[in-house]
């Protein structure tokens, strides 16, 4: 089994793509490192390598948790399998 994205632990809300060429409609396999388990997610957007994908639905105002760290807030609803980037997440630093 090949791994398409990684997640630090089960409380994270995003995974990070670790392969190139992810296209909308693909079913991906993710590895939850802390629990040493796999999960699956069908993506609705192309996801560039190194970018984030939602592994659960997120509402406007929700915290985005990556590698057990709050990395920003959702500025418009994000469905499971969608690409997370500057168009739907903002940092809380500014």
TrEMBL record:
Domain (SAF) ranges: 12-90
Keywords, sorted A to Z: Cell projection, Cilium, Flagellum, Lyase
Annotated GO MF terms: lyase activity
Database matches in InterPro entries: SAF, SAF_UxaA/GarD
Coiled-coil parts of chain: none
Domain of life of the organism encoding this protein: Bacteria
UniProt keyword Lyase, yes or no: yes
Protein name: Flagellar biosynthesis protein FlgA
Organism (species): Halomonas nitroreducens
Taxonomic lineage: Bacteria, Pseudomonadati, Pseudomonadota, Gammaproteobacteria, Oceanospirillales
